[in-house]
Amino acid sequence: MTDTEFEAIRYTADVVVLTPDGSVLLIERGWPPHEGAWALPGGHLDEGEKSRTAAARELLEETGVPVDPEQLRAIGTWNRPGRDPRGRYSTDAYLALVPAGIPVKAGTDARRARWWPVSGLPQLAFDHADIIAAALGEI
Hints:
By secondary structure, this protein is α+β, with helices and mostly antiparallel strands. The protein has a single domain (about 10-135), classed as Nucleoside Triphosphate Pyrophosphohydrolase. It has two helices and seven strands. The chain has helices at about 50-65, 130-135; strands spanning about 10-20, 25-30, 40, 40-45, 75-80, 90-95, 110-115. The strands form two sheets. The protein has a four-stranded mixed β-sheet with strand order 4-1-6-5. Strands 3-2-7 form a three-stranded antiparallel β-sheet, with no helix packed on it. It is globular, with a radius of gyration of 15 Å. The mean pLDDT is about 95.
């Protein structure tokens, strides 16, 4: 990259949804990269959209779980180069605490959505294990 070139950065938002009984909501990715792997619900910001709003929208689209964007707690931004094989991505991550037993249904880009015990998570896509660890430090 030369001094006159700019690196394209894509912005996303992810949500760590936790229940009081120690479960976290994950989706099985239905597209590359990491197709078939488990990940946090989330996705790209639409033009002009705030990351908090995108996080709530993506959560609803991918899992059927509604949350008020204003009730999401910011837990950090992950933007290390190389965190996504598609290029440079910066994600704002949020925490949502919900009651146990909320039904979930996969939608849009997710093959499946399900609750996992925090103590028995599958291998996760991207750096989502780091994001979950940060969220657990917030509660």
